[in-house]
Design brief:
InterPro entries: NADH-UbQ_OxRdtase_51kDa_CS, Nuo51_FMN-bd, Nuo51_FMN-bd_sf, Nuop51_4Fe4S-bd, Nuop51_4Fe4S-bd_sf. By secondary structure, the protein is an alpha/beta fold. It has helices spanning 9-12, 16-26, 66-71, 91-94, 112-117, 122-127, 132-142, 154-163, 184-191, 193-207, 221-236, 267-274, 303-315, 317-321, 354-361, 395-400, 419-433, 439-457, 461-478, 482-486, 488-497, and strands at 2-4, 31-33, 47-51, 54-58, 83-86, 170-175, 211-217, 252-258, 298-302, 324-325, 328-329, 331-338, 344-349, 371-376, 382-385, 409-414.
Length: 507
């Protein structure tokens, strides 16, 4: 008898450990599998029972509910007020198209046998049969683009590093997930760490790198522990090390812990941090793929980018590129957060509308008040009004609408939000998190917050709005990296889409 209780940080924060302990106290013969979260965060703690007809879900379960579950014979799928039926038939999950997250919430994150039983390592085994150029061609053909925010074609980046000549090359995974409303990297690492390890290993084989580094934020202690255990297991299984699965390829991975700097999510600042220096943005060129970590050719990809590679190799580029629209191919892992009824992970093909994400999957606001604004793409992303809710959620459509997809974070606000205050927050955030290297970002953000504050107070509103737009132009054109260059996006979108909040009059 197997019962699944998530070990994901979100579930742990509301008592998943206590639920698992309560089940074990009542019946110690039960095998309790600590899986990742299915991503339906409003149902946590989600308890699943393995039955001959499939897994039956119950949630949200608290420790106080456990005895009543036993009384209802939940071990055999008994009826209970918290019963959700078969997990795979829960509409919210059944309507998704999970590729990157295909195993998350289903397998034991640290069981290699479970991983293999659900398609794990098929991509790596296929990669070992191909040349590096053939692997890169497959990734290029799939249309996979960076999921960290820049959306640069992964195959082009890989080919650049592969063509560079060096005695050492690196694969760096950027797991410094700092955007507001984003948690997919953490959930994948805690729920299916082997798929990240597999993707990094394939990348190493493709470009000739022998060392991988995961830059993981210190705020994710459970992810750090889970990933390190997974690396140790893979190394003991001869997957990582001097002979990858008995081949002539060598590849190993280590974790480096970030100290909490948002700007270290920028690829060159991350490299500085890994090298033991202050996290300051580097000028480009040279590109990291040519001269990156310790001056060596370095591939830098986000967690979700690398974790998608195994499926592409296993099933072929055509299966992946069949999803999506235009140049936005494959699936995107959207993260619904903020004032939303059904927050969590929604993975689906590019092209779904913002309205469908927010109202169909998200269920509207948690407060039941009218929707007013949605921020897409983290703290530097644009604010969208309800008039823009039919926008297609793909890279090109969002850019055309004045926004960006970023890492796929979506934060929802009801009609009580003041967008002038949110715009000020963007400038304040930039001032705090700036590395300080360039003047437009370091000084511009401080002046920007002061100017918005004057607008809010009703001081020379028209004059200060013009000044603010001029300042935004300077920051966009003159900043060294996206930290200062994108901070004007939430400010300008708030001013354009919510002009009534910038009149200096109290709402």
């Amino acid at each position: 008898m197997r019962v699944f209780v998530p070990c994901d940080s979100a579930a742990l924060s509301i008592g998943a450990d206590e639920v698992a302990a309560a089940i074990a106290r009542i019946d110690s013969t039960i095998e309790i599998v600590r899986n990742g979260s299915r991503g339906a965060l409003w149902l946590e703690t989600l308890v699943e029972v393995e039955t001959p007809t499939g897994r039956i879900a119950y949630g949200p379960v608290t420790p106080d509910d456990v005895q009543s579950l036993f009384d209802a014979d939940f071990l055999h799928g008994g009826t209970h007020p918290l019963s959700l039926g078969k997990t795979d038939e829960i509409e919210w999950l059944a309507n998704q198209d999970r590729v990157t997250f295909a195993r998350v919430g289903i397998i034991d994150p640290l069981s290699l046998s479970d991983y293999r039983a659900h398609g794990g390592l098929l991509g790596l085994i296929k990669a070992l049969e191909l040349s590096g150029d053939e692997i890169i061609s497959e990734v290029t053909e799939s249309g996979l683009r960076g999921r960290g925010g820049a959306a640069f074609p992964a195959g082009i980046k890989w080919r650049t590093a592969a063509q560079a000549t060096s005695d050492q090359k690196y694969i760096c995974c950027n797991a410094d997930e700092g955007d507001s409303g984003t948690f997919a990297d953490r959930m994948l690492i805690e729920g299916d760490p082997f798929t990240l390890i597999e993707g990094m290993t394939i990348a190493g084989i493709a470009v000739g790198a022998t060392q991988g580094i995961v830059y993981l934020r210190s705020e994710y202690p459970y992810a750090i522990t889970t990933l390190q255990k997974a690396i140790d297991i893979a190394r003991a299984d001869s997957w990582l090390g001097k002979s990858v699965l008995g081949s002539t390829y060598s590849f190993d991975i280590q974790i480096r812990i970030g100290a909490g700097s948002y700007v270290c999510g920028e690829e060159t600042a991350m490299l500085e941090s890994i090298e033991g220096k202050r996290g300051v943005v580097r000028a480009k060129p040279p590109l990291p793929a040519i001269e990156g970590l310790f001056g060596k050719p370095t591939i830098i990809n986000n967690v979700l980018t690398l974790a998608t590679v195994p499926m592409i190799l296993a099933e072929g580029a055509s299966a992946y590129k069949a999803r999506g629209v235009g140049r936005s191919l494959g699936t995107q892992v959207f993260q619904l957060a903020g004032n939303i009824a059904f927050g969590g992970i929604v993975e689906t093909a590019f092209g779904i509308t913002l309205n469908e994400l927010i109202n169909t999957y998200g269920g509207g606001t948690l407060t039941k008040r009218p929707l007013r604004a949605v921020q897409i793409g983290g703290p530097l992303g644009a604010y969208f009004s309800t008039d823009q809710f039919e926008t297609s959620m793909d890279y090109e459509s969002l850019i055309a609408a004045g926004g960006m997809l970023g890492h796929g974070g979506i934060v929802v606000f009801d009609d009580t939000v003041d967008l002038a205050v949110q715009a000020k927050f963007a400038m304040e955030f930039c001032a705090i998190e700036s590395c300080g290297k360039c003047t437009p970002c370091r000084i511009g953000s401080t002046r920007g917050a002061e100017t918005i504050d004057l607008i809010i107070q009703g001081v020379r509103v028209d004059e200060n709005k013009k000044l603010l737009l001029d300042l935004c132009e300077v920051m966009t054109d003159g900043s060294l990296c996206a930290m200062g260059g994108l901070t004007p996006m939430p400010v300008k979108s708030a001013m354009i889409n919510f002009p009534s909040d910038f009149t200096g009059a109290a709402r």
